[in-house]
Specification:
The protein is α+β, with helices and mostly antiparallel strands and 131 residues long. The chain is built from four helices and nine strands. The chain has a single domain, classed as TATA-Binding Protein, CATH 3.30.310. Strands 1, 2, 3, 4, 5, 6, 7, 8 and 9 form a nine-stranded mixed sheet that branches.
Length: 131
């Protein structure tokens, strides 16, 4: 995929910090390039299952671009599930890993955006293609 998606965590409608320990635990095995000064990670799955560019600009938002491949989509799925986060797509779609996560979204997301439940990489890919 050539556009940006965003990983954010919301609790009771407010954006919260992402757990940096969980973030590093999930992403570290796939990092092939790290630019700590600019908060950039390039990820690649060892079995050729995809890659992604990840930007860690602050502790509450992750930007992912140039991503794709079945294994990488599963990594993104695991990331949002374990961080209790959501994936925000361009154009007004929010992907949540569990139905209950919808309750924590800001009101404008719940009322004005399309909210899709996707608990696996393949489901995320389908939601992105449909958006």
């Amino acid at each position: 995929m050539s556009y940006d998606v965003y990983v954010c965590r919301f609790v009771n409608g407010e954006q919260e910090l992402l757990d940096q320990r969980i973030l590093q635990e999930i992403l570290a095995p796939y990092v092939t390039v790290r630019d700590s000064e600019n908060g950039f990670l390039q990820l690649r799955s060892p079995a050729g299952g995809g890659e992604a560019d990840v930007y860690l600009s602050n502790e509450s938002t992750i930007t992912i671009s140039h991503f794709g491949g079945d294994e990488m989509m599963n990594i993104i799925s695991d990331l949002i599930r374990r961080l209790e986060a959501v994936l925000i797509l361009p154009g007004g779609t929010v992907i949540v890993p569990r139905s209950a996560d919808r309750d924590h979204l800001p009101e404008n997301f719940k009322n004005e955006w399309s909210v899709v439940v996707a608990s696996a990489g393949e489901e995320i890919t389908k939601a992105i293609q449909a958006s």
